[in-house]
Amino acid sequence: MHVRTVSKHTNCNNHVVDKRGFPAMKRTQIKDIVRNIKSNIVSWLAVVIVVTITFGVYCGVFFYADALEKNAEDFFTQTNFEDMAVTKRISVPVLVEGNMPDSEMECAMTADAMEHLGISVGDSVSLELTGGITVTMTVTGCVQHPESYYQG
Q1: Do 127 and 139 sit in the same domain of this protein?
Q2: Which residue among 11, 104, 141, 149 is least crowded, i.e. fewest CB within 10 A of its CB?
């Protein structure tokens, strides 16, 4: 059932609307649309396929990025991964010769560093720090450290 209404617009006198309030289409217009789609079915299917593939790729990339981030967070949580931490149980130096340092003016060095500098346990070493400050320390021990271990 079509209802005729008077338009509020001054340039249009009458509009035919359906029961939902939308402009009613004539049967010939609907038939023309269907005929147009049937005659250009390949073009319409190509557009539908391109839109579907584009939507699928977008969703795939979007959800893959979220899943990847969640998996990384889960991995870091499960393995207790730290960005940077100082602990007493990881990368602990092992004393090879002498004693571990007891004061702030003592140090222990790796065998490679001692050999490179030509020093031994009991010698003094001068360190130049930032700002031109020089500190003299006594080498009290030779250690093996996992971060400086090298077999060549």
Answers
A1: yes
A2: 11
114 and 134 part of one domain: yes
**C-beta separation of 140 from 101 below 8 A:** yes
pTM: 0.41
Q: Are residues 105 and 138 in the same domain?
A: yes
If one counts every other C-beta atom within 10 angstroms of the C-beta of residue 140, the result is 20
DSSP class of 11: S
Domain residue limits at 130:
94-144
Q: Which helix (H) or strand (E) holds 118?
A: none
The position carrying tokens 């939902």 is 20
